[in-house]
């Protein structure tokens, strides 16, 4: 096959792929309907609902709101608050340590978290005490492994403190 024929075949294939992309949904499309949400931990499902208006997640790239008809994606989660807004306006909040959120094309969202707890289970005083302890370990002459663990704790406690201060 000649190089010219290969080039024209490649161009035709590229045009058909580009046309297929144009027909796909984009971020600007209007949200219509409700989300089906599953919030799961490795050992149990902690929340499941089909009448969810919006879910706000602490994505590693920044906070993100997910509505119905959202573009399918997978987002890594950082420590922070998952906020679920149900159709009736009820708001549920969980603090997650890390995990992944998977937005499916069928208006469903699955959040797989390593750990998650209702935000109201935390006290600001306990969080501040944990922050102080983590900072003490980081500033000490502790082994590097302990300091690394304390840095992770520090990230989580800082995120918790910010969530509770709101």
TrEMBL record:
InterPro entries: ATP_synth_F1_dsu/esu, ATP_synth_F1_dsu/esu_N, ATPD_C_fung, ATPsynth_dsu/esu_N. Keywords: ATP synthesis, CF(1), Hydrogen ion transport, Ion transport, Membrane, Mitochondrion, Mitochondrion inner membrane, Transit peptide, Transport. The keyword Transit peptide applies. It holds the Pfam family ATP-synt_DE_N. Residues 122-162 form the F1F0-ATP synthase subunit delta C-terminal domain. The keyword Transit peptide applies. It is found in: Mitochondrion inner membrane. HAMAP family: ATP_synth_epsil_bac (MF_00530). PANTHER family: ATP SYNTHASE DELTA/EPSILON CHAIN, ATP SYNTHASE SUBUNIT DELTA, MITOCHONDRIAL. Signal peptide: none annotated. It comes from the Eukaryota. GO terms for molecular function: proton-transporting ATP synthase activity, rotational mechanism. The gene is ATP16. This is ATP synthase subunit delta, mitochondrial. Its main location: mitochondrion. One of its GO terms (cellular component) is proton-transporting ATP synthase complex. SUPFAM superfamilies: Epsilon subunit of F1F0-ATP synthase N-terminal domain. Belongs to the ATPase epsilon chain family. Residues 35-114 form the ATP synthase F1 complex delta/epsilon subunit N-terminal domain.
